[in-house]
Amino acid sequence: MLTHEQRIASDLSLNDRQVRTTIQLLDEGATVPFISRYRKELTGSLDEIQVAAIRDRIGQLRDLDKRREAIIKSLTELGKLSPELQSKLEEAETMAVLEDIYLPYKPKRKTRASVAREKGLEPLADWLLKQEQSSVEDFAATFVNDEKGVSSVEEALAGARDILAETIAEHAETRAQMRDFFMENGSFASRVVPGKEEEAIKYKDYYQWTEPLKAAPSHRILAMRRGEKEQMLYLDVEVPDDEAIALIDNRFVKNASPAALQIRLAVQDSFKRLLKPSMETEVRLITRKRADEEAIRVFAENARQLLLAAPMGSKRTLAIDPGFRTGCKVVCLDEQGKLLTNTTVYPHNGTAKEAEAAHQIQLLVKQYQIEAIAIGNGTAGRETEDFVRKLQIPDVIVVMVNESGASIYSASEVAREEFPDYDITVRGAVSIGRRLMDPLAELVKIDPKSIGVGQYQHDVDQNKLQESLADTVISCVNAVGVELNTASKQILAYVSGLGPALAQSIVEYRNQHGAFRRRADLKKVPRLGEKAFEQAAGFLRIRGAENPLDASAVHPERYALVEEMAKDLGHEVNSLLKDEKLRKSIPLNKYVSEEVGLPTLNDILAELSKPGLDPREKFETFSFTEGVNTVNDLKVGMKLPGIVTNITNFGAFVDIGVHQDGLVHLSQMANRFIKDPNEVVKVHQQVEVTVIEVDANRNRISLSMKTEEKAPQAKKHDRKGVKPEKRQSPETDMAAKLAALKSKFS
C-alpha cells in the first residue's frame, strides 16, 4: 500500500523527496509563500501552486485517516469488525469508498428492511439470494407467523424483498457502479415552474434545458441550482432506468429460477426506492463540488488579477464618491493616503450649484496640490466624471475607479476604527482614492467576496471559497512585499508568518518607538519570535534602511552570503546594487553549498539588480467615451473603450461606462478559436469592444472584441437530446444571430 507521500507524488507528478520535505516544512509551521520563495533547494523549486496542492492533499488524506479510525472504532464496538472488513477499510482510497463499505453496518433509523428483520425474515432473504430451484412458496410458508405480524406467504416474500432491496442498495460494488453510471449517462433537466415565466426571465435559457452531467460547465450548474433554490426552476437528474436496472440484474440474478424472479423484483424496488434517490443526491453533491471548485478557481484568479492591478503610486489625490440628490462626497488625501479634508459638492443640482461645485473642486486642487482625481463608478459616476473633465484642470489626471465593496468597507469595524469621527460617506470616498493609489493595500481591508469579481460567490461552498481567497490574498501580498513602516495592520496580517495579533503588535510597537530602521528590530516586537521572524522578514521592506538589503526580497539569513560576495570582489554591498557589470562578474558556483544552491543564488542576483521592485504593471490612465452614460445611449455597431471587470469560463464582462457591464462571449473574444478567456484578457485590462446587441428587458449587453465585421452564421439545434459538442449554449453568440437575421433580408 502506498504511503501518503507516494500517493501525492504520483497524483501531482512529483518525486517522493519533494513531497516529503514540503510536508515536513508545512508541519513545522512554514507558510506556502515562504516555502516556495526561500526553500527551493529543499523542495526542488516547487512553486506556490504545487506547495498549496501538497498541503491540501495531505490534509484530505489525513481527514480520510481520521474517518477510517472512527469507522474501525465503531465497528469494533459493534462487534462486527472482521479481518476481511478491516482490510477493505484500510485499502479504501476515497471517502466515498470508505462510506460505502461502512454503510451496511452504520446505525440507522427504522426502515422497511429493519422491520422485516424484526419479523424474522432475514433467513428467507438469504435463501432467496442463493436462487435454488426449490419451491419459493413452500419455503416462504414456513415464515408465516401471526404473532410476528407475517400473515401470509406474500407478506413473507415482500418482507424478504425489502431486506434484499436494502442489501443491494448498500452493496459497495453496486453503489460504485451506479455512481459511475449516473455520472457517465445522467443528465440535468431543468424547466421553468409553471406560472413563473415572467418572474424567472433571467433564467429563460433554462426554461426547457437538458444537458449531460459529465459535460455541464460550472456556471450552468450553478445557474440552474440557483434557479431551483429561488423556486423559479425545477431541476432533475435523469438516467435511463432500464439500463441501470439491467446492470444490477447482471450482478445479482444468477438464473431463471422462481427465487431469481424475487431477486429481480427486489432489484427494481432497490433501484427506484433506494439507489436512484441516493445516487441523485450523490451526483448532485459531486457535480456541485466540481462546479464549486471551478467557480472558486475562476473567482480566485479574478481576485488575484484585481489585487495585483497597477497602482498609481504615491500622489496627492482628490477622491469623489458621486451622488445626485445627496451630492458628491469629496476628500483630499496626501501621498500616503492620509485624510486631509472633506466636503460635499452638488454639481447635479442646478446651474448655480454646479458653478459652486466647480469653484470648490478647483480651490481644493490648488490648496492641497492635487495630482490625481479618483471618481467612483457607481450612481452618478459618469455624470460626475463629465463634470470634472469639463473643468480641464491642468496637470491632474482623472480616473474612474471601480468602487465595488467600498460601501462594505465604509460600514466595517476596520473603517470605524480608522475614521471614528467621520460618517460612512467620507470613509467610502477615502477608500475610492486609496484604491487608485494602491489597490492591494486598500482591497485587503474588504472581504474578498465583496470586491466585485465573482458571479456565483454566494452559491458555492463558503468555507472553500474563504480558504481559496485567503490563499490568493496572502500570495498577492507576499509577491508584492509590504513596506513595514507605512503598512496598515490589515495588510501586515497577510504577511507570511504574522496574522492579526502580530500585525497589531507591530503597529503598536511602531507607534511607540517610531519607524523600524532595520529588519532585525522586528525581534523586539512582543510575541514575535524567531519562527515568525524567519517566515515574515523576507516579505517586509524598509526603504531607506541602514542596510540596503532591508529594502529587498533578500532574506536576512542570506545577508552574510551577499556580504561575502561583495567582499570577494573588493566592494561594498551598495556597489553590487548599483553596478550591473560587478553583479555579472560574481561566480555563482563558488557560493553553492549544502544549504544554498543555484536557484536561491539566481534569485539573490535577480533581486540585487532590482531591489524591492514592485512586480505589478505600470499604471495607465483610462477614460470612457463621452456622451455614452446609460444603456439607452448604446447603439449596435458602436466601438467603445472598456475595462475588463470579471472573467468567467464563458467570456468576460466589460465596463463600458453605462452602469451595466457587457458580456464578451468566448466566441467573440478573438478572430481565432480560444478555450479560455484568460488567453486574451485579464481583470482590469483596457480593451476596445463593439456593441452587437442590447437587451433592455433582461438588462444584458452583448459585446465583441473581434476585428472582423461579420461572424460565421450559427447553426440551429434543438436543445433537448443534442450531443453536448453540438448544442448551442445559453450564452448565445449574438453576432451569429444578427448575421443570420441579416442574411434573410439580403
From TrEMBL:
<dbReference type="Pfam" id="PF12836">
    <property type="entry name" value="HHH_3"/>
</dbReference>
<dbReference type="InterPro" id="IPR012340">
    <property type="entry name" value="NA-bd_OB-fold"/>
</dbReference>
<feature type="compositionally biased region" description="Basic and acidic residues">
    <location>
        <begin position="721"/>
        <end position="730"/>
    </location>
</feature>
<dbReference type="InterPro" id="IPR041692">
    <property type="entry name" value="HHH_9"/>
</dbReference>
<dbReference type="InterPro" id="IPR006641">
    <property type="entry name" value="YqgF/RNaseH-like_dom"/>
</dbReference>
<dbReference type="InterPro" id="IPR055179">
    <property type="entry name" value="Tex-like_central_region"/>
</dbReference>
<dbReference type="InterPro" id="IPR050437">
    <property type="entry name" value="Ribos_protein_bS1-like"/>
</dbReference>
<dbReference type="InterPro" id="IPR023319">
    <property type="entry name" value="Tex-like_HTH_dom_sf"/>
</dbReference>
<dbReference type="InterPro" id="IPR037027">
    <property type="entry name" value="YqgF/RNaseH-like_dom_sf"/>
</dbReference>
<dbReference type="InterPro" id="IPR044146">
    <property type="entry name" value="S1_Tex"/>
</dbReference>
<dbReference type="Pfam" id="PF00575">
    <property type="entry name" value="S1"/>
</dbReference>
<dbReference type="Pfam" id="PF22706">
    <property type="entry name" value="Tex_central_region"/>
</dbReference>
<dbReference type="InterPro" id="IPR023323">
    <property type="entry name" value="Tex-like_dom_sf"/>
</dbReference>
<dbReference type="Pfam" id="PF09371">
    <property type="entry name" value="Tex_N"/>
</dbReference>
<feature type="domain" description="S1 motif">
    <location>
        <begin position="637"/>
        <end position="706"/>
    </location>
</feature>
<dbReference type="Pfam" id="PF17674">
    <property type="entry name" value="HHH_9"/>
</dbReference>
<dbReference type="Pfam" id="PF16921">
    <property type="entry name" value="Tex_YqgF"/>
</dbReference>
<feature type="compositionally biased region" description="Low complexity">
    <location>
        <begin position="735"/>
        <end position="746"/>
    </location>
</feature>
<protein>
    <submittedName>
        <fullName>Tex family protein</fullName>
    </submittedName>
</protein>
<dbReference type="InterPro" id="IPR032639">
    <property type="entry name" value="Tex_YqgF"/>
</dbReference>
<feature type="region of interest" description="Disordered">
    <location>
        <begin position="705"/>
        <end position="746"/>
    </location>
</feature>
<dbReference type="InterPro" id="IPR010994">
    <property type="entry name" value="RuvA_2-like"/>
</dbReference>
<dbReference type="InterPro" id="IPR018974">
    <property type="entry name" value="Tex-like_N"/>
</dbReference>
<dbReference type="InterPro" id="IPR012337">
    <property type="entry name" value="RNaseH-like_sf"/>
</dbReference>
<dbReference type="InterPro" id="IPR003029">
    <property type="entry name" value="S1_domain"/>
</dbReference>
